Amino acid sequence: MAKTSDISVLLPTVLLKNTLLHLPGVTFNMGVPIDDAFLLLEAFLQESDLLSPQIKKSLELLCSRVNVSGASAGSGKSKKSIKLSKEAKRSIEDLHSIFFASSEKHPVFACIAADKNGEICSNVAVISRLVNVQMLPDQCILGLRGELKGYAQKDLDSLTPLNVETSKYGYAGEVLYELHAGEEIPPTAENLELSKKVINGITENLTLTEKFKEDYASLNNSTFKDLLLKLNPLAELLNIQLSDSTTKNNLLKLKKLLFSLKHHQFSEILKACDIYVAVFPFAFSQEVNYLQAREPVEQLSVTLELINFVSAIFTKYLDVEFVSHSWNRIGKLQNGKQLQSKFIINHFNGLKELLSLTARNSKSAKSSEGGNASKPFRMGDASVKKGSHNSDNNDDNDDDGDLGTIAEFISNIQDYEISNDGRNLLIKDFKRLKKMQNTSSEYQQLRNYFDIVLDLPWTQTSNEAKIEKEIDLMKAKEILDKDHFGMEAAKERIIEHLAVVKLTKKTPDAHKSPIILLNGPPGVGKTSLARSIAHSLNCEFQRISLGGINDFADLKGHRRTYVGANPGLIIQALRRAKSTKIVILLDEVDKIGMAGNKGNPEAALLEILDPEQNTFFTDHYIGFPIDLSKIVFIATSNDKWDISEPLRDRMEIIDLDGYNCKEKVKIAGQFILPRQLERNGLLPSQIQMDDEVFDSIATSYTHEAGIRNFERLISKVCRKKAAELLSRKGTYNSVVLKNDLIKYLGVPFSFGSEEKFSAGNSSIQEEFGIVNGLSYNSDGSGSLLRFEMVGVPGSKRISCTGRLGEVLLESCEIAESLVEHLIHTHLFLDYNEEKLTKRLDSTSVHMHVPEGGVRKDGPSAGLTMTLCYLSLILERPVSSSIAMTGEITLSAKALPIGGLKEKLLGASLSGKITKVIVPRLNRKDLISAYIESLSDRDEANAVLTKLVLEEEQCLGDKKRRYKFSSDVESWVRKEFDVDVKYVDDFMDVIREAWGGEVVVLRKEMKAHL
């Protein structure tokens, strides 16, 4: 509060519900019926100069809601109208200017509390401002921020509240309050000592609280003392209240505030006292006693009493040592076993009485709220509970107990979100069912149908069902990071979805769940990532394998007319999950069967995965529309191009790249080895593997984009070490060295792989005419592809072998024409022009691409084949440490290609390549890969903006085309151990491959007319 003279303010006063005491320094969210909220805030609806635009908009929405529902409620006519007096309006304006010092204007209240008998318990009020209004279908949430304390100048008991009927909240009218600026606490030694005790006491209470929660969470009921603490009602109640997420966050904030406090900062210490009393679960009378302390020193003294009370609870009242000794002493008596049994029985009977009393109180509370004793059933988190019907209220109940659950479901069918057609169908079928003999086959079919329908999670129209649990984005991110390494794009998309869900809680119908396709090579963690996504979303998880499905009825269900009919896989997943809050994984969607005589299952997915159609998805077995729009669908594939274009267009594609060696090493240390140690029963001290061993396994024993075989080999090493440990042959050594891998895993498959790509290891073929290319494989991985050409005297022609596709053969024809054009129109310094031309025209060329069992196709080998042909004609070898990729045109331009990151990974895994030549226009792909590698997303966005703007400037100016920052290239060198060189045309390729050793000049061509 500002240090001014005491002032008096006239404020509208809110009577809080029983035992709820508002304290300064905190925000309380009050749930208020819409009519009562309108009554409380009516005075501010016409005072636009007292309201910020945001608050004004919320109150206008509230006013429109009351105008619609007030007539039906019947209570709006009987309520007395509220209007702010001029004095109250002036007081609120003064408070805004003096105390809140904010351009945002809010309604200001004084909040008082009533005890259980409805009597005003104190003349102290907390001056609060309304910081937000959240509109829900049946109530308002008013956020009241406590700012100051005021003292009424008249007896509050004499006030006559306005008519609020049976509401728990009321409006006590306008009350005149005194606001004291408060005396400065003199910095005497006594007061400084008191403030020191308060700070240390609150800090000690927080420490005791954290220790209690940790100890209580670690109870395993294995010891008698653990059981006694579990049976202690005080311990259980404290754990429930202190484990609340809001309370935990508030305690953390209080701890941070105390950390920076000094003993002489009395005003800050008093604020900490306010928060301390508000956050800890003190009794109502204790909070009132604190609030009534007018003088600052008195407030510190009351706080110190509360601190001592909390310390006594944790150190004395929760100590079970005395109870344990008493139990043991009783057990040593002659009839000790009987006395101990009597203690347990009495304790159990007391719990039963408490349960009975709670049920009676709950029932009476429900009846007093309007006689609606039946609580609306929430479906969305659970299915209909069988056997819970109430036969007193069901006219359609059959004596047969098997039909009781169905009868109750039909009688309450209006409460469920089922379409009108569906309701009519179910009612009609139920009437048919009651008329049938239970021995008939049709009766059993219909009974099975109703069993399946009742198992589905039908969401009720209850307003409570639309209130989502508070979403914690940071916790979701921690879950995703804990389970998976990298995959930032997929994780970021899930966090975005959670943020949208959180922001659209007020309008959940406007939000559609995402439909995501995770595309990537086998073994990168697509399926496990989907499971982690479900965990982070706090959803049920169901997996549907689509590989090999060739019947559309597997997805859409069979019609009930067929014998043995069943619902589709989507409905079965909903039935198993018992919830509409679910993540469904459609695994291997690219391997679904093709269209045949049983329909096209891929076409059936079009309706399921279309956000505009799956709101009314109709399963043939169920027979009426079901809303699938709130389900998160995640599909996986190895090759997205095997999916039909209409289906692919319906999904948001997230490409998951393969892992390089460094990433595999990190994954092995963080995830794979700990998991395999647990699965093989080994302790961390019994097997030790360093990064060098992991790197050797990744490079010498596997050649995959994922980590499936990589983990399998690590598991094999663990099994071998487990056998060594138990066999006890000699001294056991827990350390696994690189040379030990031969003993455990055998001969590396890459043994001699360096010679595989070497041009100088043939006793027959010359070194020239051999160039390394790069390929993108069908499994999503990249690899090195060697192109070989041999020339013999003969007529000029090129024959090709190695299972080459049509596009690759066309690239070979382009290479032939381009080299022929180059020889005839350009001069090669230090080369005899006539000999080159003669060699070109009289050489029969045979091109082969090894690994002939593998089919190869695509345009990205154009640069490679052109250089290979030119190398043969010039008889100049190309270094085996160079690889290249890129499409070429007849005008010698280098065009960009796809899968560059995977190709670089393949070059890195070969262990031989040090330089990779790629088209200049492919630098954007490396920029994207570099940005994805940055863990800090804010930094990544800033770097991306900088690099994109720089790239636009470079590509727009020929002089600056290659004058860019080297951050991306440095990252490539660090991640893949290769240098990337960019080319725009084939002349650049010659320059990068041979440096200045080959100089090409254009001939002067003379035209003959």
UniProtKB/TrEMBL annotation:
Residues annotated as transmembrane: none
Short name of any one Pfam family annotated for the protein: Lon_C
Keywords: ATP-binding, Hydrolase, Nucleotide-binding, Protease, Serine protease
Region feature Disordered, mapped onto this chain: 364-400
Keyword Hydrolase listed: yes
Enzymatic reactions: Hydrolysis of proteins in presence of ATP
Entry GO MF terms: ATP binding; ATP hydrolysis activity; ATP-dependent peptidase activity; serine-type endopeptidase activity
Top EC class for this record: hydrolase
Active site, renumbered: S860, K903
EC number: 3.4.21.53
Biological-process GO terms, alphabetical: protein catabolic process; proteolysis
Residue stretches in coiled coil: none
Domain spans labelled Lon proteolytic: 765-996
Entries under Gene3D superfamilies matching the protein: 1.10.8.60, 1.20.5.5270, 3.30.230.10, P-loop containing nucleotide triphosphate hydrolases
Protein family membership: Belongs to the peptidase S16 family.
Protein name in the entry: endopeptidase La
